Amino acid sequence: MITLISIVLILGLIIVLFVNLSPQFGGNPSKEDMQQYQQLSYFSQGKFHNLMPTNMDMDFTEAIKMLPEFFKNDPTRRPDFELPVVKRDSLELTEQVHETRLVWFGHSSFLLQLEGKNILIDPMFSEVPAPNPILGKKRYSKELPIAVEKLPHIDMIIMSHDHYDHLDYESIQKLKSKTKAFYMPLGMGAHFEEWGVETSKIHELGWWDEIQANGVFLALTPARHFSGRGLNNRFSTLWGSWVIKGKSKSIYFSGDSGYGPHFKEIGEKYGPFDFAMMECGQYNERWTDIHMIPEETAQAAQDIQAQKFMPIHWAAFTLAMHSWTDPVTRVIQKAEEIKQDIVVPEIGDFIILDENLATKTQWWKRSN
């Protein structure tokens, strides 16, 4: 018994030291910031809240039952072939670009070139979406379209929330010296300050806040999700989606979100959108309130009045129990059913909004 207690205490000490000494966990909003948040309708008792009732509960018994299923060695949860990745080089990304275009890095990470600006969205470029590589599974593709170090100077980085598959410590360390400004939901600035980003570069927004950022219109809009990087800071920072508008193009980025009426509200206020990146992956019947199933993704794209949308939050990591192609198969079927235009570009391919966007190949299917 003494030996068992000693092992438990040692493990507990290791966990506490890991959480408190590892920079990946970031920081927490100050007491002064928390006091200011009190005036917001979606903040109370020290936490941010969703606009509608959202079930986040999973009792201990259910969680234990889920573990074998989660860690099951299911070959359908990862590609059994090397995913095609279109390689980009520094020169083509630094040349003068007149059209609006994007490069997808898989999952929810993008480089957006708009109005002559280089904008990174949720730049997660590491191999594993976890505070330590041993705590997660590796990215599907061995390489990114371009190495982080070879990216051009970045005018702004836009963040949706602070989960590890969206906010990556190592990526920010590599990007902070070559980035002019960072835009994020309330409270997230504490992470960036902890990681050495100059305070003058950090800009926090609440839901429905708007800002002109170096000639680009930005609005942080609601999402139905949650936040937190540590053991006891869930809901301590805000989460959200983004409206991004240039002179001629309007773009929507959903971040992570369960389905809800906020999509129609966003569409009515800011739509229609030329292009939308909509969450579609890492879902499960146990957490449908915070991650849409594919059929809801297609409907949400229609709700926000997207002329064309692409499914994101898939094709990079396994964070749920569905097969890795289930998201794209189901969302295409639903989009066709409701006559909502959809495009599924290859990782790294240029998504040029001035062109007639179309899915070139079903690259997620293995070619024999």
UniProtKB/TrEMBL annotation:
<dbReference type="InterPro" id="IPR024884">
    <property type="entry name" value="NAPE-PLD"/>
</dbReference>
<protein>
    <submittedName>
        <fullName>MBL fold metallo-hydrolase</fullName>
    </submittedName>
</protein>
<feature type="domain" description="Metallo-beta-lactamase">
    <location>
        <begin position="118"/>
        <end position="314"/>
    </location>
</feature>
<dbReference type="InterPro" id="IPR001279">
    <property type="entry name" value="Metallo-B-lactamas"/>
</dbReference>
<dbReference type="Pfam" id="PF12706">
    <property type="entry name" value="Lactamase_B_2"/>
</dbReference>
<dbReference type="InterPro" id="IPR036866">
    <property type="entry name" value="RibonucZ/Hydroxyglut_hydro"/>
</dbReference>
